[in-house]
Amino acid sequence: MDFDEFERWYAMAEYTIELATYDLKNKFYSWACFKDHQAREFAIKALLRGLGKPIYGHSIYKFLEHLRSIDINVPEDLISKAKTLDQYYTPTGYPNV
Predict the structure, then answer these.
(1) Cβ atoms of 48 and 56 closer than 8 Å
(2) CA-to-CA distance for 16 and 39, rounded, in angstroms?
(3) CB-count exposure of residue 1 (10 Å: 0-12, 13-18, 19+)
């Protein structure tokens, strides 16, 4: 396990979720949603990079399926929630969508 790589990415996840929480409290809903997605993306990438199995892209659902493919248990309800969250990534981050 590469703990330095894990910690670097996980610290970014924690920082980003703090920003999302701030945005939510201040009614910046699209930014809160976008940053929440980013935070979860960073957290999963932290785990995979720490394991020496980096992944690229932005789909939380695909990342969780990748975790399953390497024998990491991912509950079905988390998969379902990831599919929903993925739908908000592009429209909340890009004004032309």
Answers:
(1) no
(2) 5
(3) exposed
Tell me, what's the pLDDT at 89?
87
Q: Where in 39-81 does DSSP place strands (E)? A: none
The CA R_g of the chain, rounded to the nearest whole Å, is 14
21 contact partners, CB below 8 Å, separation of at least 6: 32
Distance of alpha carbon 9 from alpha carbon 28, whole angstroms = 25
27-58 pLDDT, tens per residue? 999 999 999 999 999 999 999 999 999 999 99
